[in-house]
Amino acid sequence: MLTLATDIEVLARFGRALADPIRCRILLALREAPTHPADLADALEISRTRLSNHLACLRDCGLVVAVPVGRRTRYELADERLGRALDDLRAAVVSVEADKTCPDAETRGCC
């Protein structure tokens, strides 16, 4: 049982990061391999500006890190365990309620 405020804050931060489909796509892409923002924007078919805003959010949440590589910056998950956590969370949700959708997903930004 979660009782410490820090445990709750950590999970809430992770939940906020996952609350946006673009951030989910970014995390899943970075789970596969670290990458540069331009390549990630192309792969996800979103603008670099939009990607930059989402990467900033994920950095602020402590889920991704920017690694300088020469004159460029590469992004990666802050900890490899996050990739396994994403896999485990997805598998658990799918196995429990694979056919469920969030009825208010478009208006409330959930799911």
Description:
The chain is mostly helical. It has a domain at 15-83: Arc Repressor Mutant, subunit A (Orthogonal Bundle). It has six helices and two strands. It has helices at residues 5-18, 21-32, 37-44, 48-60, 80-97, 105-108, and strands at 64-69, 72-77. A two-stranded antiparallel sheet has the order 1-2. A hairpin with a 2-residue loop joins strand 1 (64-69) and strand 2. Helix 2 (21-32) crosses helix 5 (80-97). The chain is globular. The mean pLDDT is 87.
Write a short abstract of this structure.
With 111 residues, the protein is mostly helical. The chain is 62% helix and 11% strand. A two-stranded antiparallel ribbon has the order 1-2.
Question: Kindly, what is the distance between the CA atoms of the first and last residues, rounded to a whole number of angstroms?
Answer: 24 Å
Major beta sheet, strand line-up: 1-2
- Which segments are poorly predicted (pLDDT under 50) over 5 or more consecutive residues? none
Oligomer: single chain
Instruction: Give the overall shape, derived from the CA principal axes.
Output: globular
Cα-atom radius of gyration: 15 Å
Q: Compute the number of strand runs.
A: 2
- Order of SSEs: HHHHEEHH
User: Briefly, what CATH class of the domain at 15-83?
Assistant: Mainly Alpha
Report the biggest beta sheet as strand number plus sense, adding barrel if it closes.
2 strands, antiparallel
Mean pLDDT: 87
Number of helices: 6
Annotated CATH architecture of the domain at 15-83 = Orthogonal Bundle
